[in-house]
Amino acid sequence: MTGRPGPHPPVAELPADAVCSALGTSWRGLSKAQARDRLTAYGPNELPRTGRRNVWQPLRAQFTDLFAVMLIVASGITFLAYALEEPRDTGTLTLAVAILGVVVLNAAIGFAQEYSAERTAQALEAMVPRACRVLRDGELLELPARDVVPGDVVVLEAGDAVPADCRVVEAHELAVNNAPLTGESDPVGRTADPVAAGPLLQARNCVFMGTDVVAGSGQAVVFATGAATEFGRLYRLTAAAPPQKTPLQLQVASMARRVAGAALAIGALLFAVRLPTGEPVVDLFVFALGVMVALVPEGLPATLSVSLSIGVRRMARRHALIKQLLAVEALGSVTVVCTDKTGTLTQAEMTVTEVWAADRSHRVTGVGYDPSGEVADAAEVRELLRVACLCCNARLLPPTNPRERWRVLGDTTEGALLVVAAKAGLDREAEEAAAPRVTEFPFDSDRKLMTTVHRTGAGLQACVKGAPGAVLERCTDVALDGRREPLTRTQRAAVVAASDEMASRGLRVLAVARRELNGPRPAQEEAESALTLLGLIGMHDPPRPEVTDAVAACRRAGIRVVMVTGDHPLTAEAVARRVGVVRGPDPVVVTGEKLDAMDDEALGELLTEPSELLLCRVSPEHKMRVVTAFQRRGEVVAVTGDGANDAPALKHADIGVAMGASGTDVAREAAAVVLLDDSFASIAAAVRLGRAVYQNIRKFLVYLFSHNVGELVPVLAATFAGFPLVPINAVQILAIDLGSDVLPALALGAEPPESDVMDRPPRPRGERLFSAGLVGRILFLGGIQAICVSALFFWHIGSSGIPFDDFTRHTRVYQEAITMVQAGIVLSQFFNALTVRSDHLSIRTVGLATNPALLAAGGFGIALMAAISYAPPLQAVFNTAPLDAADWAVLAALGTVPLLADEARKAWLRHRSRGPEGGPG
Ligand SMILES: Nc1ncnc2c1ncn2[C@@H]1O[C@H](COP(=O)(O)OP(=O)(O)OP(=O)(O)O)[C@@H](O)[C@H]1O
Fold it and tell me: Which reaction does it catalyse (predicted)?
């Protein structure tokens, strides 16, 4: 059972205290035992999976699509032809059965693929972290959202998804986006006061599952979970939308349809051309039908989907969860990555290393969040740290076993402040007991500061921390040796110099200030003006070790990496240099302020310059503007984001990348990719895999379409040369399409990335999959294959000395010749599979054994061909004959011709582009 089936008390109309007692809870939350009991009673806070499609629906779809219907009709006609034939030919019956086999096999592949894609999607969905913060026994815990029960007190902050339906009991500037429920997208403010009776969705003191907190903070008591929530009711009414097809899937499907049209036309043409030869009409009809069926690339869309879902799984293994299939192919064509700094390029494990107070700088010892270190024992430092830690919401968690480290629950910047305060012997909870918090004006990246107001013995005190510029402009005084003095121009300059000096060493700098207030709860404006500056705090955030290589790889791959940060330009530049985002002497550093002063044209020009670019002190709106400007220039942009207000940029970018470990639920919902480990290196890895997916698709397209040329040309040649029989019959063609070629195509779709995949520029935006290059390669390889097998056929027929008109289906020489044609195609496809693995690198560079599955798949095809040639029952079906060793030797030699020709073409290409082989071409 999920969620409470019965009605809940009228929570909206009751005052906050009464809500708590009505729901059997308190301001300290439920006890752990109560929570356990309620979880058993109400079930997990999950939605029933009613929207999932049943298993039969996709299976039925496999038999009702255009190709399947065409094939079923074709099979029916062939059966009819067999019934009408006089005398009956088992070949016709085999063909009819084979066509039905095609339908069944295709449906099986398609169904298995869809089923596994659905399973993958579910598994991935489950991996996206969905946690929330809950008070239990007065302790703040982070729990999976599914463990939330009615009566839980949930702590909410901007960026959180609301885990269940709750009544707000405390609100600080709290606003939510109710769009998923009400469709109205403007943020709506929430209050903790009771409201008049009315529709629950309209109650201004309730927040609902499926919606997001967009601003402020607060606490709320859960009154409905799972299916009992408003969202649960809505969810039951809507069926899950079927997954959308990606542009590549659409391109391949449309190409497959066009080829099918061409196959129909060719079949009709062959029928018409051969009709005057006097062959029986039924025979001719069956033959034309067979050619049509053979040319239709039925398995192509399924092979494509397999290839895409292999990409999805590989990316998941590299910590990049794909939420939209579209992202797999888009990742392969990224040209610009706009990346955050903290957490993505750095470890987000901040350590305060320096404190600046009363004109003096003090070193802080210790590393990470372990509070065993030292800080100067001076009164001004202590006061600075007291105010800083009062103005925090994060919590420091001690290790629970010797292998664990200290952790931070909440914002990492605040975590570092709590650690340095602890080093000075200050504990936030004790400080807050002495000076209880009255209200809070939460941090936001536009203001770049945060304020809390506390009740002290003497009245109220506002504690402010934030970016030095933002705090300094609100300060009128400075604390110096225990006195409050006016902040003179010289003083101000000294603070800025100290802050810049710290920032230029890569430290994140925060300023801390205070204001004494009298009277009632102050407005934000009042609490954040006429402040007294207490000092600066500098924290170090070490770069992630793996990022330097990833940034270098992106550079080689022609991808521009632009750092977008809310931090100080000097801090940003120092970090950018450390990870290699900036290498030259003069990066272009643009602040949010400068961006505001630029019009779109000036911004466009700025982005056109190929310089190293740092965007600093920017807000999420700036991010959105930069993404749009890059896109206007035709770039394919990936952008990272973690905050709630990053959502528009994440949605708008070609690939929105959200942080799985540290990001907000809102950002994760808006993104196409979620990074489980938050690291930039995972973006680079996903780009590499995305490029590989695209290359692999091209590989199996060349592979599959070249044999179509190899099959069709000999048939046309025989028709126009006046030979009365076909050089390869329809059942043989089907054996190639469905027997020997399927597995190598799948193995090509699963190829590991080529070694130099990140040494080439991104593919141009809007490049068609079926480019001139791709079609050219198909005609080149397929054409050579076609010439070889046609020559083989006519040479074998011709050398027998039997006149054309004396040949019948059962002439031994004819049976040998068609066996040779089929085996010729199979062998040449074996070598083709090897050569299509790279469009410019020699097979010697790629390595023969680097895709063992491909060799095994090719080997299976050859074994199948041998069985068709030697096993009497198969000989009867295919009208084939045993080949001797000399035949095989000739076939193997001819089979290598396309490979050798392609090697020569590649060598020439490499020579033309950068000289002799060795490096990437
Ligand atoms: N919790 C906080 N309270 C007060 N000020 C903060 C807090 N977190 C950050 N700041 C200040 O606001 C500035 C901007 O922070 P913001 O979080 O918007 O940057 P960001 O884009 O996350 O930076 P980065 O690119 O480093 O991740 C920081 O440089 C810091 O000075």
Answer: ATP + H2O = ADP + phosphate + H(+)
Q: Is 893 exposed, middle or buried (0-12, 13-18, 19+ CB in 10 A)?
A: exposed
**For ligand 1, is residue 450 a contact (CB within 6 Å)?**
yes
The upper half-sphere exposure of residue 192, i.e. CA atoms within 13 Å in the direction of its Cβ, equals 17
Give dist(CA 120, CA 118) in Å, integer: 5
**14 CB less than 6 Å from ligand 1?**
no
Q: How far apart are CA 691 and CA 693, in angstroms?
A: 5
Three-point CA angle 495, 623, 128, nearest 5°: 110
Contact between 528 and 451 (Cβ < 8 Å): yes
Express each pLDDT in 887-908 by its tens digit: 999 999 999 999 999 999 999 9
Q: Are 639 and 633 in contact (CB under 8 A)?
A: no
Distance 158 CA to ligand 1 centre (A): 14
DSSP class per residue in 526-552: HHTSSEEEEEEEEEE-PBPTTHHHHHH
| 411 pocket-lining for ligand 1 (C-beta < 6 Å) | yes
pLDDT tens digits along 559-609: 999 999 989 999 999 999 999 999 988 899 999 999 999 999 999 999 988
Q: How many residues does the chain have?
A: 921
Looking at 372-481, which runs of residues are DSSP E strands? Answer: 395-397, 407-409, 437-444, 449-456, 459-466, 475-480
From the CA of 568, give the closest atom in ligand 1: 29
Judging by DSSP bridges, how do beta strands 531-540 and 475-480 pair with one another? parallel
Backbone angles phi, psi at 901, to 5 degrees: -60, -40
Q: What interface predicted TM-score (ipTM) does this complex get? A: 0.96
Q: How far is the CA of 564 from the centre of ligand 1 (A)?
A: 12
Percent of the chain residues topping a pLDDT of 70: 93
Give yes or no for residue 467 CB within 6 A of ligand 1: yes
Interval between CA 452 and ligand 1 midpoint (Å): 17
> 598 C-alpha vs ligand 1 centroid, how far in Å?
24
CATH 1.20.1110.10 fits 274-315+692-752+768-914, yes or no: yes
Please tell me the distance from the alpha carbon of residue 710 to that of residue 715, in angstroms, as a whole number.
9
- Point out the least confidently predicted range of 482-486, 488-492, 531-535: 482-486
Measured in degrees and rounded to the nearest 5, phi and psi for residue 186 equal -70, 140
Residue 116 has a pLDDT of 66
364: left (phi over 0), alpha (psi -120 to 50) or beta: beta
At 843-876, the pLDDT tens digits run 888 888 889 999 999 999 999 999 999 999 999 8
Counts of helices then strands in the chain (DSSP H, E): 33, 26
Question: Is 466 a pocket residue for ligand 1 (Cβ < 6 Å)?
Answer: yes
Atom number of ligand 1 nearest to Cα 467: 31
pTM confidence score: 0.78
Per CATH, the number for 351-540 is 3.40.1110.10
pLDDT in tens, 737-787: 878 888 899 899 889 898 888 998 898 877 788 888 899 999 999 999 999
Question: Between 324 and 429, where is the model more confident?
Answer: 429
Q: Which one-letter amino acid corresponds to residue 343?
A: G
CA separation for the pair 509, 571 (Å, rounded): 8
**How confident is the model at residue 123, as a pLDDT?**
60
Residue ranges covered by each domain of the chain? 1-243, 274-315+692-752+768-914, 320-346+544-678, 351-540
Fold category of 1-243 in CATH: 2.70.150
- The mean per-residue pLDDT over the stretch 169-189 comes to 80
DSSP structural state of residue 761: P
Given the candidates 3.40.190.10, 3.40.50.1000, 3.40.50.300, 3.40.50.2300, the CATH classification of the domain at 320-346+544-678 is: 3.40.50.1000
pLDDT for 104-131, tens place per residue? 877 887 777 667 666 665 665 555 557 8
165 annotated active-site: no
Please name every residue paired with 346 in a beta bridge, in sequence order, or none if there are none: 543
Neighbouring C-alpha atoms within 13 Å toward the C-beta of 32: 4
